[in-house]
Specification:
The protein is α+β, with helices and mostly antiparallel strands. The chain contains eleven helices and 23 strands. The strands form five sheets. Strands 11, 12, 13, 14, 19, 22 and 23 form a seven-stranded antiparallel β-sheet that branches. The protein has a six-stranded mixed β-sheet with strand order 6-7-8-3-9-10, with helices on both faces. The chain has a four-stranded antiparallel β-sheet with strand order 2-1-4-5, with helices on one face. The longest helix has 18 residues, at 169-186. Bound molecules: adenosine-5'-diphosphate. Adenosine-5'-diphosphate is lined by residues 15, 21, 39, 41-47.
Length: 435
């Protein structure tokens, strides 16, 4: 069996007698790969990182490092360096002493370690901080020094646990670019934990998405976006979030096939593409239709494309973003609620429109939050938001209340079953459809 630089084999971790924080995760991380662990808070990312570092022991399963079972190897023997969200530097030490600390643990003298400290400082652009103490550094500078301390011993792997989340947005973006450059230059295997999908997508060679301790999908950012394995991954990856509409497939005897969205029908191509054939046998079942904002466009005077179908919409909200405008349209559909991922403003409308009860219960279970049947309804927002978010050119200036026909690319539809699994595109035909 081939093994990566870091291999997780059916790794589980349960604290006490609770549900597992990490549940049978298997993953091979290649030498030099930058792998991101992505998922919402509490999904087990940090626990998995600590299991790799040896700071926790597995309840079952094995961690292998460089082709060897790590077993009970203590953290110090694993030649792994960790950086945390707010890395604790030693306040009484200078930047140089902090960076050189791992080398001192290796019994190097200051004179011996100095060239490596200088090298690491140069790599991180913190040479001018070598003489300063942490109290005289900004948050970003402290985090750079902490990364320098991780780099200095040339470990076989870096484990980074939300290293940027305590920084402001500008610094976060800057350091993110630097981390990408640094790890590429060093070629060191890196596992990076974040709950921020844009950080994950921009940094990872591959991104492993976790939910409730279970690995959902590990793939390149491109594949995660193009072929999400389930509705959770589809909804977690991508901004704006994928449009998710509750619908039912109907195929009357006249040979047509469409999705009933409530007040409108979405005609499907005839014949159905090979990777959407499964839809025929899903008739009358509650399904989730996923469509990304870029696969819907506001209809113009030109003819619709061969795979485009028209829907009627009314503008309910407009988000001006500078380079583009996001238009929220009401199309009379039932927006699917994805509780753990939902911004609160999306919730009340979904409740008001009382979408398919069974589907919502399943989704609530899927996303770990139970909706109490007797719970008081959340407050109705002052401004309702639409069912469908569409990307429009920045020059467009639609007004709330405008009627706006849209064209939806039916070749780009995702269909998920009521368990959240992707039905279409079916795995085998996916590549050709989206090629
Ligand atoms: P994440 O890093 O994705 O936010 P964690 O790995 O920190 O998630 O936590 C996963 C789950 O395990 C959570 O439910 C958390 O409460 C639980 N957990 C983590 N560490 C401990 C611990 N030391 N003792 C008990 N429960 C823990």
């Amino acid at each position: 069996m081939t093994t990566g630089a870091i291999s997780l084999r059916e790794v589980s971790k349960t604290y006490g007698r609770r549900i597992p924080a990490v549940n049978r995760v298997s993953l091979d991380i290649d030498p030099g790969e930058f792998l991101v662990l992505l998922g919402p808070s509490g999904c087990g990312k940090s626990t998995l990182l600590r299991l790799i570092a040896g700071l926790e022991s597995t309840t079952s399963g094995e961690v292998w490092l460089d082709g060897q079972p790590a077993g009970d190897l203590p953290p110090a023997a694993r030649n792994i360096a960790m950086v945390f969200q707010s890395s604790a530097l030693y306040p009484a030490m200078t930047g140089a002493q902090n960076i050189g600390f791992p080398l001192r643990l290796d019994r190097m003298t200051d004179a011996e370690s100095r060239p490596r400290v200088d090298w690491a400082a140069q790599l991180l652009g913190v040479t001018e901080l070598l003489g300063r103490r942490p109290g005289q550094m900004s948050g970003g500078e402290r985090q750079r020094v902490a990364i320098g301390r991780a780099v200095v011993r040339a470990p076989s792997a870096f484990l980074l646990d939300e290293p940027l989340s305590s920084l402001d947005a500008k610094l976060r973006n800057q350091l993110r670019v630097e981390i990408a450059r640094l790890t590429r230059e060093l070629g060191t295997t890196t596992v990076y934990v974040t709950h921020d999908q844009s950080e994950a997508m921009s940094l990872g060679d591959r991104v492993a998405v976790l939910r409730d301790g279970v690995l959902q999908q590990a793939d390149t950012p491109r594949e995660l976006y193009r072929m999400p394995a389930n509705v959770f991954v589809a909804a977690f990856v991508g901004v704006p979030r994928i449009n998710l509409l509750a619908g039912t497939v109907l195929a009357p005897l006249d040979g047509s096939i469409f999705v009933d969205l409530g007040r409108q029908r979405l005609p499907l191509p005839h014949p159905l593409p090979p990777d959407h054939q499964l839809l025929r046998i899903q008739q009358h079942r509650p399904l989730l239709i996923g469509v990304r904002a870029e696969d819907v466009r506001i209809a113009g005077p030109e003819r619709a494309g061969p795979h485009e179908v028209a829907l009627r919409g009314v503008v309910e909200q407009v988000e001006y973003q500078g380079h583009e405008t996001l238009v929220h349209l009401g199309i009379g559909a039932q927006p699917a609620v994805v509780p753990a991922l939902e911004a609160p403003r999306f919730m009340p409308r979904a409740r008001r429109t009382a979408p398919n009860g069974a589907l919502q219960t399943t989704l609530a279970r899927w996303y770990g939050r139970r909706e109490e049947p007797d719970a008081p309804p959340p407050p109705v927002p002052a401004r309702p938001v639409g069912d469908l978010v569409v990307r429009a050119e920045a020059g467009m200036n639609p007004l709330v209340g405008d009627r706006m026909p849209v064209l939806l690319n039916t070749r780009r539809l995702f269909v998920f079953d009521d368990q959240g699994r992707r039905l279409c595109p079916a795995p085998a035909g996916g590549a050709q459809l989206f090629g």
